[in-house]
Amino acid sequence: MKNAVKGDIIYSSSPDKFEIFEDGYLLFENDKIIGVTYEINDDYEVIDCSKKLIIPGFVDIHIHAPQINNIGLGADKELMDWLETYTFPEEAKYKDMEFAQKSYEKFVNKLLNNGTTSSVVFGSIYNESTEYLMDLMDKTGLRAYVGKVNMDRNSPDFYIEKTQESVKNTVKFVEDTIDKYKNIKPIITPRFVPSCTSELMTKLGEIAKKYDLKIQSHLSENRREIKFVNELHPECNCYVDVYDKYGLLRDNLNTVMAHCVWTDEHEMQMLKSKQVMVAHSPYSNGNISSGISPVSKLIKNGVDVGLASDVSGGHEIFMGKVIVMASILSNMRWVHIDDAYPQLKFEQLFYIATKGGGKFFGDVGSFEKGYKADFLVIDDDSLSDSNDRTVRERLQRFLYIGDDRNIQSVYVDGKKIK
Ligand code: GUN
Ligand code: FE
């Protein structure tokens, strides 16, 4: 069956251009976009969303599911103390399935209600609750990569694994989930270099290669963290070289590294040449005093960038607000630190929150032919003013002052999931 959604359609085709069809039709067949037009024939069943905005679903390229209860808490500490004080004790609770179930239900509902149709997710170190999370995301109809986290050093005794147990549980996790779902896939998830021994990292690199899996981790986020990595690995020149040495920088958009606030020229070249995607996490970088990322410079130098809430380092799950914070920090970096790279424009910001991050999933985040039919219907009537506004202005206003209440429906693969 062919379908058409009628409404005010806006999406990114490239980082500097919106495609806009006011009172147009978004055409799709089964799970794929056919195109966008102003006129259709009788072959289509029409969903009338006139006067509503139709936009691609958001892509959150880095988020921690077992930190959902900590949203809005703990921004009084810097990364390493924040992990020890707030984060590890909270994640350790996900050994308890009853706690995990009620918390993950909240997490999945929040993603759905905020229109985050695709996400790249850290679970906890526990297989059982991480697999439960995947079941739930699958039942809800979302698209995601989800990882069982690995940690076998520099972690509290109540939240740490033995190396062999971590490896064994990872293989089981992968084999349990790799063919189980259509749109939910496992991803290899070493937490970050400080919490994984060389032996564990080597094994995880081998597992990723053997099963052809994507990898997610954290890189060059915070000064104290980077100093610690340099002390732990004097045999490597720098942080990114540690991941590379252990086979954890899988190329061609198979790896996502969160933050990269302190990326230097060498690291930037590595990220670019291997096509490692950077998860830009502006709220988190501000909350736990990591820094103001050189994201414009990364983009200008050809590094792939996606946008991330990094809940609960970041306290906003709605990607509209994350776009706004990315814009503010980019402005401030230009004013205070480096005017060689211009501030991110609205077009670029929306692009990284949709099509840019969507590249990690394949053809996701746009309305070009062949893309996945993942879209949101936005009722922005409550945000209107006394002027006629363009579709671009209405989108901008929704992102700045709208929220989940404006998201009327959510579609993934052409199916209505909310
Ligand atoms: N580095 C290692 N673990 C984490 C985490 O949970 N959040 C953030 N922001 N950085 C990390
Ligand atoms: Fe993170």
Describe this structure in words.
The chain is an alpha/beta fold. The protein is 37% helix and 24% strand. It is built from 13 helices and 17 strands. The strands form 4 sheets. It has a 7-stranded mixed beta sheet with strand order 3-2-1-4-15-16-17. A 4-stranded parallel beta sheet has the order 5-6-7-9. Strands 11-12-13-14 form a 4-stranded parallel beta sheet. A hairpin with a 2-residue loop joins strand 2 and strand 3. The structure holds guanine and fe (iii) ion (FE). Residues 62, 64, 218, 258, 310, 313 line the site of fe (iii) ion (FE).
Secondary-structure map:
Layout: E1 2-14, E2 17-29, E3 32-37, E4 44-56, E5 58-64, H1 79-92, H2 97-113, E6 116-122, H3 127-140, E7 143-147, E8 149-150, H4 163-177, E9 184-186, E10 189-190, H5 198-211, E11 215-219, H6 223-232, H7 239-245, E12 255-259, H8 265-274, E13 277-280, H9 282-287, H10 295-300, E14 305-307, H11 319-336, H12 346-358, E15 375-378, H13 391-401, E16 407-412, E17 415-416
Helix pairs in contact: 2-3, 4-5, 11-12, 11-13
This protein binds guanine (GUN) and fe (iii) ion.
